[in-house]
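User: Quick sanity check before I run a bigger batch. Here is a single chain. Can you write out its predicted 3D structure?
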Amino acid sequence: MRSYRQYCAIAKALDVIGDRWNMLIVRELLLQGACRYTDLHDGLPGIATNLLAERLRDLEREGIVTREEAPPPIASTLFRLTPRGQELKTILFELGRWGAPLMTEPDEQDAYRGRWLASPYPWAAALVAMVVFSPVLIWNYQHDWASFRFQLVRATATHELSLRTVGDYIGLQFGLVGFILLPVVLSGVVLTAWRGYRRGDAVAILLSTAVIVPFGYFFWKSLSLRIGDTWPMFIWPVGFAAAAINVTMLAQEGQPAWMIQSTIRWARVAIASGIVFVVAVFLYYTVAPWNLIGRADPIGGEAGYRQVVERAQAQLQDTGASWIATTDYRTYAMLRWFFNGRVPVIQINERNRFEGFRDPGMNAVSGRTGLYVGRDPDSRNHLWQSTTAIRQPLERVERSWRGIVMDTYALEKLTGWTPELSPQQDSPLYRARTLAGEPERLRGNRGFVIAASVR
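Assistant: Done. Predicted structure follows.
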């Protein structure tokens, strides 16, 4: 074993573990525990048997490795790390973390063993993710896995193209990622995909595909439907990783200096502007008293329901109603949240979304008086014509947020009808609603329902 002959802690450490194969032998003993010579040799493809024996003797002499004779049925010599050798664990983990970016371009001749990736960090990350998302999973378990079921039944559109919904989707991505960071991330993803598919790089293919496929799918759906505010959020952490790897790969590929400098400069500007944007949005929603976006504000769209719930509670008591009907999912979800099982809440339409759900409490619904809570213009929905319900207007309630009326709700007493949980598939109460299609016909139907209600 050669020595640097320097009075330096780092040089002294490298005198012991710096020779080729030494740290990889320590890696195998950390991953496998006590193991035989043949197991060590199998985990070190490329090392000669005599060189392995020499390295083991060196590490034994330095107190890093010890050997012991195992009793039957093993009856073989086992090698294990000493307590001094175990202290190298932290160093190896940090060395692995430092070397991870170097794995983006694997050589076809590189050998591989599954246990080399047996780091506790991915498992710890999965555990943290489970803990973080456990409230969502628990809630869904208690509510018929509604969040997952509803994704399988989506609203439809009768038109082929809507520039408004496309614009909403693209604008939403700028809002989620940042006005500067989004182009940086997308360009990084495209370059990562080009590099991956051209060279057969599995990591680059995985990262770029995990962004391009869902982004393209949501874009395709946005041609005719509005994409939910939070649906694409899962894409961008992977996109950030792909963009970061792309920045490091530009220098390794010998790209022009101007391209590398420009990419780094834009990345820095994007990160700085993104931080400023996030802080500004945070302060706007937590401190500022204004509503600068109006009725389109995504937070305002979810706020102010307590006003509606309080009036609904009062009408339940005044009318003797025992259940609540709605005709839009957001109102249904909010009322269920606030009433928390005390009163059955049923969305009477789009029943195909609720197939297989548990009984909402029909013993308190059948033959009983109900209370309809409907958002304008849903309260004038022509679907009521397919029921025998007698609707008696009670009052109108405004849902406000920061001085802006976000929605107006009609509260009506319902008698003479019990909602069907599983109507026939050709029933208008079964199908998901059609969005942005045949507006003239819908306006005519709404006018008919208003007239019928007045009469």
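The chain has 16 helices and ten strands.

User: Great, the batch can go ahead then.
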